[in-house]
Amino acid sequence: MPVSAAIYGCAGPQLTDSERAFFADADPWGFILFARNIENPAQVSALTAEMRGLTGRDVPILIDQEGGRVARLRPPHWRSYPAGRRYGEVYARSTEDGLEAARLGARLIAAELRAVGVNVDCLPVLDLPVEGAHDVIGDRAYGTTPEVVIALARAAAEGLLEGAVLPVIKHIPGHGRAGVDSHLSLPRVGTDVKTLDRTDFAPFKAFADMPLAMTAHVVYEAIDAAAPATTSRAVIADIIRGIIGFDGLLMSDDLSMQALSGTLAERTRASLKAGCDLVLHCNGKMDEMEAVAGEVPMLAGDALRRSTAALDRTGLPQDFDEAAAIARFASLTGTIWG
């Protein structure tokens, strides 16, 4: 069944009549939830069920549930998980413990997401922060070397997949050198390609087998001095699809972020022309979503092939002793849950 090449957010914890009409007509590839959409488990379950009812399919529903400061599901209804850096600290003490903690943390997150109808998590973060960069990545990263990030991110991705939640690697081909927050302005990175290939690109190369990836709204001046990765044909074709070798489903980061310029229609066209398979629009503003919808095609060709391959990896949750996992996770990370 054809679907449009877009992912949308919604304005609040329940859909409005105008949103219902728009989503039923637009038939997006997926939806994404934010804190403004979340009150309690019963409400989130009802919202995700309604989204699936409107589309008539098991539509992908995304969320950013990393742990630390990037977490949409929070206490008292959900557990609070540590940021990526904490797993790196455990890993530095014991490689085995760090890997187990990262996998268990992701597996526990997956169980909470599936319980409310969410089946895609924008995790793991593969970015490598460098000294002097903006803190937009900061402690979200597992570490500062490719080896640590690759090991812990692989464990986290496996934990999500074991829980039947698809991981989204981000922010391809690397956001760790950004000197400004791309939510607010456009980062520019002047590092040469040889250095980027050895550092920033390395984790993404190791994850070229993943089903989904999200772009970085970052200009890499040595590759394309005019456009950020999201809207750069050179970055997507030569680096993401070429050097990195990623052939999974590629989505833009949020089109409403201030790193991008132009109208929402122009941003949509530029992202798709550059080679993004899907565009992501998060803020739930109806006029902006309508502008995006006016530009997105039905998913077809390689994008449809990649979508099918990604969704085929969802599967069913593997058997899981949640109580034992909680106890073990707490002992590994020092996390205290009420």
Can you name the CATH architecture? Alpha-Beta Barrel
Give the tally of β-strands.
Answer: 12
**Order of helical and strand elements:** EHEHEEEHHEHEEHHEEHEHEHHH
Q: What is the first-to-last residue Cα distance?
A: 45 Å
Strand order of the largest sheet: 1-2-3-6-7-9-11-12
- Gyration radius, rounded: 19 Å
Q: Mean of the pLDDT scores?
A: 96
Which regions contain 5 or more consecutive residues with pLDDT less than 50? none
What shape does the CA trace take? globular
Brief write-up:
By secondary structure, this protein is of the alpha/beta class.
Describe the structure.
By secondary structure, the chain is an alpha/beta fold. The protein has one domain (4-315): Glycoside hydrolase, family 3, N-terminal domain (TIM Barrel, Alpha-Beta Barrel), CATH 3.20.20.300. It is built from twelve helices and twelve strands. The chain has helices at 17-26, 41-55, 84-93, 95-115, 146-162, 193-198, 201-206, 233-243, 264-274, 286-293, 301-311, 322-333; strands at 4-8, 28-33, 61-63, 65-67, 70-71, 120-121, 166-172, 188-189, 212-215, 219-220, 249-254, 278-281. Strands 1-2-3-6-7-9-11-12 form an eight-stranded parallel barrel, surrounded by five helices. Strand 4 and strand 5 form a beta hairpin. Helix 3 packs antiparallel against helix 4, helix 4 packs parallel to helix 5 and helix 4 crosses helix 12. It is globular, with a radius of gyration of 19 Å. The model has no long low-confidence stretch (mean pLDDT 96).
